[in-house]
């Protein structure tokens, strides 16, 4: 049912916790797993993103760690590193891959109406070309 699963990751605890759900689902459906992480690039005048997500080196190390985690469970992965705005980039990658499902952790940010509109999770839900599974 889910031939290609896209798993966007960042340095958050929620992203790490979602990995268990990803592994179970990918194994059950014998899916292709593609892991993406985005080097955040701020617009002029915007706040600079956290150092962990603004450094290509940090993103490369994060992706390597994720690959090892899934490899230990017998799951092959494909890694994609991109630059840009996370939500838009994730949706673009999902579209390029013709992904059947995006699975992502939710930080629980944006519990107010203003915050919800700005969250990466909310934007992905609204823009994704495929279903999105949010792991709380």
TrEMBL record:
SUPFAM superfamilies for this protein: Adenine nucleotide alpha hydrolases-like
UspA domain: residues covered: 1-136
Pfam families on file: Usp
Domain of life: Bacteria
CDD domains named in the record: USP-like
PANTHER family: STRESS RESPONSE PROTEIN NHAX, UNIVERSAL STRESS PROTEIN UP12
Similarity remark: Belongs to the universal stress protein A family.
Name of the molecule in the record: Universal stress protein
The species this protein was found in: Trichocoleus desertorum GB2-A4
């Amino acid at each position: 049912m889910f031939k290609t699963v896209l798993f966007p990751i960042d340095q958050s605890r929620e992203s790490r916790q979602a990995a268990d759900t990803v592994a179970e689902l990918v194994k059950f459906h014998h899916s292709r797993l593609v892991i993406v992480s985005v080097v955040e690039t701020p617009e002029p005048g915007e706040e600079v993103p956290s150092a962990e997500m603004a450094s290509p080196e940090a993103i490369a190390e994060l992706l390597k760690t994720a690959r090892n985690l899934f490899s230990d469970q017998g799951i092959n992965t494909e890694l994609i590193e991109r630059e840009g705005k996370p939500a838009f980039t994730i949706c673009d990658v999902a579209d390029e891959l013709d992904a059947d499902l995006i699975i992502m952790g939710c930080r629980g940010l944006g519990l107010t109406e203003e915050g919800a509109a700005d969250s990466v999770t909310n934007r992905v839900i609204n823009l994704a070309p495929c279903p999105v599974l949010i792991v709380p």
